[in-house]
From TrEMBL:
Protein name: Phosphoglycerate mutase
GO molecular function: phosphatase activity
A GO-annotated cellular component: cytoplasm
Residue ranges crossing the lipid bilayer per the database entry: none
Domain of life: Bacteria
Length: 218
């Protein structure tokens, strides 16, 4: 059987001084720490230091700036071009561009309350199942492209997390505070032929995590 690994990576920390839920808005770049995270993951995958060089033959990113910037040093480390796949973009969200909270955030305004009526879908944005479906379609395309090797897909927290939940046969609805998907983390899907045989999780840039910006759904 042919072993293939698809790494679902969350982008690095974003420059977001106003702490808004930026969603799919253009222009949100990586912070200096986010850039350092991207380079640290690139070094990790390329085997800098004591680690073994991974067999990465494709680097694919969401079209959003923060994902493209995260993917760039990884692609460079393997002498590859960054491919773009719209299917691994951030989830759509009604609260995009707004601060999200009860105090001075959008939740203080009654016109937003109907969007919170159904946390199981969720009613404030793109359905979890729709995110899973498009992410898994992108994973299948990446598996065909990198069959027998490895590929890195740079995406976003929520799409990566609900995809993992689906693959582990868990409920898609969840507490956002309990997502295991930090900035610059890798959720690694290991296949033997066409069969998923394992899901791993790692944080190659963990040393840079304390104090990192982690707005839910970023």
């Amino acid at each position: 059987m042919v072993a293939t690994t698809i790494h679902l990576m969350r982008h690095g920390e974003v420059h977001n001084p106003d702490a808004v839920l930026y969603g799919r808005l253009p222009g949100y770049r990586l912070s200096e720490r986010g850039l350092a995270m991207a380079h640290m993951v690139a070094d990790h995958l390329a085997g800098s230091g004591a680690g073994a060089r991974r067999d990465v033959v494709a680097v694919i990113a969401s079209p959003l700036q923060r994902a493209q910037e995260t993917a760039a040093p990884i692609a460079a480390a393997f002498d590859l071009e960054v491919r773009t796949d719209e299917r691994i973009i951030e989830a759509g969200n009604h609260f995009e561009g707004k601060t999200f909270g009860v105090g001075d955030g959008s939740l203080r305004h009654p016109e937003h309350w109907p969007y919170l009526r159904n946390p199981f879908r969720p009613s404030w944005g793109e359905a979890y199942k729709e995110q899973v479906d498009r992410m898994l379609a992108a994973v299948e395309s990446a598996r065909e492209l990198a069959r027998g090797h490895e590929a890195v897909l740079v995406s976003h927290q929520l799409p990566v997390w609900v995809t993992r939940l689906a693959l582990e046969n868990r409920h898609l609805w969840h507490d956002p505070r309990k997502r295991q998907c930090s900035v610059a983390s890798l959720t690694s899907l290991r296949y033997d032929g066409d069969t998923l045989v394992g899901v791993g999780y790692s944080e190659p840039a963990a040393v840079l995590l304390p104090g990192a910006s982690t707005v839910a759904g970023a």
